[in-house]
Structure formats: structure tokens, C-alpha cells
# Entry
Amino acid sequence: MVPKPVIGLVGCMAENYKDKAFKRMQGIDVVVGTNNIGEIPYLLKEVFAHQLISSLAHQPFLAVSKKERDEVVYESMFRQEKDSSFVVISEGCDNFCSYCVVPYVRGRLRHRNYKNIIAEIEQNIKQGIERVTLLGQNVNAYQFKSVSQYQEIRILPPPLPSPHQGRAYRSRSIVNFMQLLKLVNDIDGLREFSFVTSHPKDASVELFEAMAKLDKLKKYLHLPFQSGSNRILELMKRGYTRERYLQLAGEYRKIVPQGELTTDIIVGFPSETEEDFKETLELVQKVRFNGAYIFKYSPRPHAKAGELPDDVPKIEKERRHRILLETQKKISKELKAKQ
# Structure
């Protein structure tokens, strides 16, 4: 008997809707949350076993709400291409942007041990992988803190009793994002690597200088600005201003002159006026991104922006979306022609 295709919902939406997903999407077999993906092989076996007994009614399987992903699940052999793979360096997010559900469905920001990250990349290289992409919802906020304990050891006893004798000490070491990039760049056999997605509040001249200096690091930065209006940015709880973003973009262009810069934009956020939109359009025209992912706002369960009236008409969202798409398409074409 040939098994029937298995239909599954995996990731943020699965974590957000949980068992409600079965009612919204008839015929779905499995719903798997962001930290439960390691259970997929087991769930598939259960689905196939259930299919063999034709008399049984359709049985959906749910696996959600696990607080943390098992380290073994990070192994990119599950999602590698012929010569490239994704390597997760952090999970979750602490930013709580008002339109976003990531902190609610993926949890607070957690950083993987840099030693495990390096070991995974080295294992990938042994399998023929030459290019990797470092992944995180806020990848450039990476900062792994390790704390180790050790006992003070004396070869000879002190001449007088010491208050420090036999004391346990704690040693703390911190590896930040720029240091991690350097460690990855030094891995033998790696040809190229990149990272996504960055947050403007964690971007800096130091990051751009590292990008310019590290020879294996792809000169590509995805830096979402979302809106060119300070009023909308504040409602979005983005943690930076239009002026700060323009400063960052200018510094990046200066330090990494051959680098590509892409972004994310949301149009039609609650209360967005024509003037707000014009500020977004002007920023796009001023920065001249190599590419942009442009989205029409829609409310998300649990996201705080859902408490605001979704008061920008659909037809207006579509108009603003179309204008930005056409503008960005023209800019991308012009920049590509200069390469």
C-alpha cells in the first residue's frame, strides 16, 4: 500500500494556532510547533501507521509548546542543499515589535553555544558543504555567555591562614556576534558564509568593519527598516528612528562600498497616513536598496498591534504596496546594471 501524502503545518503559525489549525484547514495531518520539529519523524510514523488501518477515521496529530529545541535538531543535515546549509545560532526574540508574534511562538532570545555552532559547520564541511548561512530572528544580537567554576589549587600552603584558601571561583567568558563571525571565518574548508536577519538596534560600525575585513563573509546585509515614519516606528516598537537608520545605511555603504543592502517594509500599519507613507517612500529612494521584501499589514493573534484599529483600507494598502514595489524594482534594475 502506497502511503497517502501527509499534509502538515510547521513553524510559527502552527505554534500560534495550535489545535485550532485543524478546524481552519480541513484534512491537515500534523501541526508541529517551532521547537517540536525533532518529533516529525515520529509523527510521520504515527500517521502512516494510522493510514494502514483503513477503518480508522482521520486522526490529526499535534506537537506544540515545547519550551526549547533539542540541540540535535539544529544539525543542518535535515535542511541542507548540495553545497550549502543553514546553521541556527539563536532562537527567539526579545524585541516584541508590536506587529510580530515571534517572541510569543518562538520564545525569548536564546543563544547556542558557539562551540556547537563551529562543530556543526565543521561537520557540514566534511559532508561537502562549502557555504553556510547563520540564522536567527535577531542574529546580530548574538552573545553567548559561558560560566565555568574552578577550585583554587595551591602547590604549597600559605604561611598564614588565608580567607581565600579552598574558595570556588567563577569564570565568565562572552563571545559576541563579531567574535563569532571571526571564528566562523577561520574554519578551514569553508568557502563563504552569510547571516540573516539583523535588527538595526544591534547594527554598528564594528559589525560593518568586520564584514569588510573577513574575506569569507558575504558582503550582504539584510536590515529591515519597516517604516520611514518615526511615529509609525514608535507604534511598531522598533527601538530606533528614521535618522538612526539612515545613519546606519550611510555607514554601511561607506565601510562596505561593494556590499548589497536589502530590507523589509510594512505598508498600511494602523493609523499610517499618506504623509507617513511618503516618508517611507522617500527613505527607499534615498537609501537605494538592492532589494526589498514589501508587506501589507495584517493583524496577528497575540501581537500588540492587533489591539489597534486596522484602519487603512485594503485598497489603500494595495496602492502603497504597488508604488513601493514599482519604485524598488526600478532601483534594483539600475543598481544591477552598474555591476
